[in-house]
Please model this.
Amino acid sequence: MTNKQTIKMKALLLGLAVMLLLSMFPASQSAAASACTDPAWSSTGIYTEGNIVSDNEHAWKARWWTQGEAPGSGGSWGAWQDLGACDTGTPPVDPPIDPPIDPPVNPVQGDRMYVVYASSWNTSIYDLSTANIPDYITHLNLSFVRPDTTYAQGSYAFDQEIAGLEFYEGATTPNGQKKFTAQQSQDLRNNIAALKARGMKVFVSVGGWSYSQGTQWSHFNAKNIVDLAQDLGASGVDIDWESSSSNCNKQVDSQFSCSKDGEIAGIITSLDQEINTRNSNLQISIAGWSTGAYYVKGTPFEEGKVQWGSPFGGTMYRVVKDHGSKIDFINLMSYDGGQYFDPREGYESYRAIYNGPINMGMQIAPEGSGGNVLKLNAEPGTVYDAEMLTGQNNIATQYYNVETLVQYIKNKGRANDGFMLWQLWKQRVHQPAPSGAATENSAGQYVCSNLPLNGDCSQSIPVLPKL
Model:
């Protein structure tokens, strides 16, 4: 090789080394240096995805449309991405640009969840097909699994006696306990795999009201639950802990506690540890009680400052406040609370202590308790964010409709908040919704079109026979 060739080769290698070195630095750091003289963040300003502001000697980039949320206040779930400390000595590349006034029509399509609980009683494993379940549903929760299940990995004993699921093929009947055949077990797993291949996440939901009234939760076994979830091919575990015997002291935050805090904290902690130890990549969600984050003294949700009371107020507060980092999202049971319960207040009480996604719940009437009827559209003149936290015990039924709740989440929620439905087969396994009420299809299609969701919003859940 000649000297000239050697020089060229060294120059080439030097250039490659520089490129490699530059690639090791995140783009956000470069962006921060050029963004440090961008406009200061304003609490009244309206920002859309990509807008850059300066605040507290850092540069921040908007992840989505936002107003009033201070940079850094939402942590990793917040609206602002921290681009790093400002380099005040670097002049701006471009002149400051005022943020646009009008937010985008559809800033976060595809980021929202629509979680639907699929009860197993009076149904067949063969109902869980892609033909029966609209593709705009993002998560399907198989309900319910026994908290104290003795399920053993590889047994494929998905029947009610072992797993708790009440599918026709494995139900407990007056004539004895049905058992899954090897083919039925495989068919259930195949149906779950087909739903997952389409893009849906299937969770096993543990507990529910019936499995929460005895001693089942005190015998919760995280290993058995994870074994069952993995053998089914599930994407996660939903904890529907509905203990009705937990009493709370209703003190200030630092002293607030409930008699069963240890039980629910142990459930979430042991499940999280089991998932991490086994690298199983399962997610964890919880079903949040309507008033589960109420009644902490000195907060807006103290008794007397909200429109509805409950003997179970606050039962979810400590687990969400102290162990929220272990929970991927909350499915809020914002129903069954009677005419004075305001689902928007239920949402705000959890939002005050939790930064992850919250899915506002809807129940197709007739409700299990309380007597409310979920309707599709709001009454004329309804203001979606009016009359909250007044403490006047106002009738809140005006706001319990799909239209109002969607408007509230879109305008007052965060960009990754969504909706939950109880339940996929509500009219099939219970009774038809009363006249004028929302149905599984009308509610889901409205959420799909107006939140919005990805998928074909015209798809419907077919009418299937009760088994």
